[in-house]
Design brief:
4-stranded mixed sheet, 728 residues, globular, alpha+beta, single chain
């Protein structure tokens, strides 16, 4: 018998249907009838006939025709909403498909903008190429991942966790992890059987640690724990962040120190693989004893209580979402509630996103700054290898190398640089000259934080810990979030500097007394204001970051009747680090737009090949600023390019090959050590063939790079290399 889950004025109703030929209108009336029946005042209706309503899918919010048969309009177990005529939509309404969900296929055509500017629209503007990779909303089918990541609790990377958050993979356990989990559970079962007094298993929690619980109520204890600790507030985590949180908790449980049963852990994995995501408010954790509130909300959905979201259902009661996917709520055994909620996974999962986004924007900041330096007619002398060799901080050396790769006129000449080669300027302002020193320490900060976060995501953070090899449990403090909290405070302070120095470069681009460009980068100044307020936006974001960079981990408030008398406040450290990074991305998006606009006033001169490709990329989504127009969409478009790492993808080859010199064997060695992740167009731009000639054998391949085995200039054979030298 088909069954539908219907949402009426905040309530979810299960409506069975004996005859599939009944109509959508019947389903709406039956749902309203059941709603009225449950209300003492009949919900304000005299009868069902008085109700006027529309019916729409929860997924996509598409309206349905009341005359359509149910077997044609809906699938079994589908979620729908009845909207009563005259009702006002609540401002707190949760959309059924939150932003950022991995739902829709993308148009697969290549980025022609990599090699050519966008086409003219015939009216002095530019048209976006049809192959620009926007979501194709003609499709609404959930794009279920086919690949798996095997978790063992020891080898998860920050990159893997972010990919899991995006819905690119499902999860499975390694055989070794399964054995560890089983052995750990045997210890718990023995404790329960022997009625041993152990914290959190046969006792209460926190201040109630000395209260012994009868064996008959041990399961009730775990349910009560999850329910009472689900006390967070604020907006729910996005689906991507909730996936990361759930995946990370699974990874920690896979280590085998939590005492969860293998059957329960596999149920949790099934929920993740079905993309059933509990409602987890973002606020409420103090970061010790772990992230109790958010992880409790996560566990609440797993036991079929609270709200839950999936691509199939949208938001609904957790029990209905689980049922729609053929899943059953988890029945908690002794210790399992505590195993699900005790740890630093909220802080650390958000920290993973922060580290990966920080890494991406740090790489792209070098490209944006190099473009600004070109527009302001700066010198490359400050990036000389000898300068940085005598102060060899790794980040500083790497940033200087990237600047040389982007600006080196010997490899890809810049007409702009040639135009002022013999000017009398000796050195540039600090915001240009000191980029390696300022950007460099940001890179080193990110590397330091990433090391801590990587250790944390593969750590056991429960209490008590179950040591199967010793056959005992030990209470400790691994749940304390001080490590990730301090690291993420440091990350925010470090990454902020990219926005601070970027805003000063925007000032130089907009201020005619500091450049040779028109005021605010626009013609007919006065009539047009150009980038005047865009710079103000950048300044506002930088100022806001200054407050956000105040460390949250310097604070601590005693909780749980002084049994938890020192906490990390790591949840706020993670959330504000992400806000700081978003502001950095937005400031650099404004600088990117301003630098590209500055190039318009230097035409017909061209910059270096990689920077021209960056310009072409920007112009594929934002046309030149001829006169004033609505600017916010342009900033958002540039921001998306940075978030999606389109800018850093373009000059990757030049980063890898820009200054490679020495023996032929050395070239191959460096290629293997630092494989470029590039497109074929980059190979073509260096004069290399994008495919081997007929009869020339197989190309050298690594990642997306292809260097042909050919005697043509640039081919490996022409360098005198043997095929054995190409073996990885």
């Amino acid at each position: 018998m088909p069954r539908y889950t219907v949402h009426v004025r905040g309530e979810w109703l299960a409506v069975p249907c004996q005859d599939a030929q009944l109509t959508v209108g019947w389903l709406g009336r039956e749902a309203v009838r059941r709603y009225i029946k449950n209300k003492p005042d009949n919900g304000g209706f005299a009868s069902v006939d008085d109700a006027r309503f529309l019916v729409r899918r929860c997924k996509g919010l598409g309206l349905l025709d009341n005359e359509d048969p149910l077997d044609v309009a809906l699938e079994d177990n589908e979620f729908v909403e009845v909207v009563i005529e005259g009702d006002a939509m609540s401002p707190d309404f949760i959309p059924s498909q939150p932003e950022g969900v991995y739902l829709y296929p993308f148009l697969q055509a290549p980025w022609s903008a990599l090699g050519a500017p966008p086409t003219s629209d015939g009216a002095g503007g530019f048209s976006i190429p049809q192959y620009y990779p926007l979501p194709d909303f003609r499709y609404s089918k959930y794009r279920e991942p086919e690949k798996y990541i095997a978790l063992d609790g020891d080898s998860l990377t920050t990159e893997d966790l972010v990919s899991l958050g995006k819905g690119h993979y499902k999860i499975k356990l390694t055989p070794t992890a399964e054995k560890r989990v089983q052995k750990s559970r045997e210890v718990i079962d023995r404790i329960v059987e022997e009625k041993t007094v152990v914290y959190g298993i046969t006792t209460g929690f926190g201040k109630f640690a000395r209260t012994v619980i009868p064996v008959s109520k041990l399961e009730e204890l775990q349910f009560n724990l999850v329910r009472s600790h689900s006390s967070g507030v604020g907006k729910p985590l996005s689906p991507e962040r909730c996936r990361m949180l759930l995946a990370l908790r699974i990874n920690v449980l896979a280590k085998g120190y939590s005492g969860i049963s293998l059957g329960t852990l596999k149920q949790v994995i099934e929920v993740f693989n079905a993309s059933c995501l509990p409602y987890v408010p973002e606020k409420g954790t103090v970061g010790a004893s772990g992230d109790l509130a958010p992880l409790s909300h996560l566990a609440l959905g797993l036991i079929g209580e609270g709200k839950m979201w999936s691509p199939k259902s949208g938001w609904a009661d957790a029990k209905y979402v689980l049922a729609a996917h053929g899943l059953k709520p988890i029945v908690l055994k002794p210790k399992e509630g505590l195993a699900l909620i005790n740890g630093t996974q909220m802080i650390t999962s958000l920290g993973c996103e922060a580290v990966e986004r920080a890494s991406a924007i740090a790489r792209q900041a070098d490209i944006v700054a190099a473009l600004t330096l070109e527009v302001l007619k700066g010198t490359t002398k400050a990036f000389d290898t000898d300068i940085h060799a005598v102060r060899p901080h790794r980040g500083q050396v790497e940033v200087a190398f990237r600047f040389r790769s982007l600006l080196d006129s010997d490899h890809h000449p810049s007409e702009i640089a040639e135009s002022h080669r013999f000017c009398d300027r000796v050195q540039d302002a600090y915001t240009l000259r000191c980029c390696p020193q300022v950007h460099g320490v940001v890179n080193d900060t990110i590397a330091f934080v990433k090391n801590i976060i990587t250790t944390e995501i593969n750590s056991a953070t429960d209490n008590p810990m179950v040591f199967a090899s010793r056959g005992e449990t030990i209470s400790g403090g691994n749940f304390h979030g001080e490590y990730p909290a301090k690291a993420l405070d440091y990350l925010a302070i470090g990454v902020h500097e990219l926005a601070s120095i970027s805003e000063r470069r925007i000032e130089r681009l907009c201020n005619p007394s500091l450049s040779e460009l028109p005021a605010f980068l626009v013609a007919e100044g006065g009539l047009n204001s150009g980038f005047m307020i865009a710079h103000c936006t950048a300044a506002a974001l930088v100022s806001e970051n200054k407050a956000l960079c105040h460390p949250s981990s310097v604070d601590s408030l005693s909780t749980s009747a002084a049994t938890e008398d020192h906490v990390s406040m790591g949840g706020w450290a993670a959330r504000k680090a992400l806000r700081v990074i978003e502001h950095v991305e937005q400031v650099l998006a404004i600088e990117l737009l301003a630098a590209c606009q500055g190039i318009e006033f230097l035409r017909p001169l061209k910059t270096t090949t990689p920077l021209e490709k960056v310009y072409d990329l920007v112009r594929s989504v934002v046309r030149p600023w001829i006169k004033d127009r609505f600017m916010a969409p342009d900033i958002e478009a540039a921001h998306r390019l940075l978030v999606e790492q389109k800018v850093s993808g373009l000059p990757a080859l030049f980063f890898s090959l820009g200054s490679l010199r020495g023996s032929r064997a050395s070239l191959v060695a460096q290629l293997v050590k630092n494989p470029p992740a590039i497109q074929e167009t980059h190979v073509q731009s260096l004069g290399w063939e994008d495919s081997p000639g007929e009869g020339n054998g197989n190309p050298f391949q690594y990642s997306c790079l292809e260097i042909p085995w050919t005697e043509e200039p640039g081919g490996l054979q022409s360098m005198g290399l043997q095929e054995s030298e190409m073996t990885l």
